[in-house]
Amino acid sequence: MKRQGKEIFYYANKNECDFIIKNENKITNAIQVCHIIHEENKERETKGLLEALNTFQLKKGHLLTSEQEEEITLQNKKIIIMPIWKWLIKNNPT
């Protein structure tokens, strides 16, 4: 992302989100990273992402995992759960 000219930030307020992506002076994405999503950590991982989405008025965000893939909607926000390798291929500008 840095090679693409994007700025990367960590978000921490009441909750935390791993990556906030800024492109040309505008926040464009919020990304949470977790090896595996399961019942014990799903609420914690989505809470931080949702807080960031609400703070920066984004409609969707990504939750990157090792293998899981799913789309969920929480608080009218789309959360795209996908394996990090798929996200990397999708976001490679070459």
What does this protein structure show overall?
With 94 residues, the chain is α/β, with parallel strands linked by helices. The protein has one domain. The protein has helices at 42-55, 84-90; strands spanning 7-12, 16-23, 26-33, 60-65, 70-74, 77-83. A six-stranded mixed sheet has the order 1-2-3-4-6-5. A hairpin with a 3-residue loop joins strand 1 (7-12) and strand 2. It is globular. The mean pLDDT is 92.
Task: Write the topology of this structure.
Layout: E1 7-12, E2 16-23, E3 26-33, H1 42-55, E4 60-65, E5 70-74, E6 77-83, H2 84-90
In which order are the strands of the major sheet placed?
A: 1-2-3-4-6-5
Note the overall shape.
globular
Provide a count of the helices: 2
Distance between the termini: 12 Å
Q: Give the tally of β-strands.
A: 6
Low-pLDDT windows of residues: none
Estimate the mean pLDDT confidence: 92
Series of secondary-structure elements, N-terminal to C-terminal: EEEHEEEH
Key features of this structure:
94 residues, alpha/beta, six-stranded mixed beta sheet, 6 strands, globular
Compose a concise summary of this entry:
This protein has two helices and six strands; from the N terminus they run E-E-E-H-E-E-E-H.
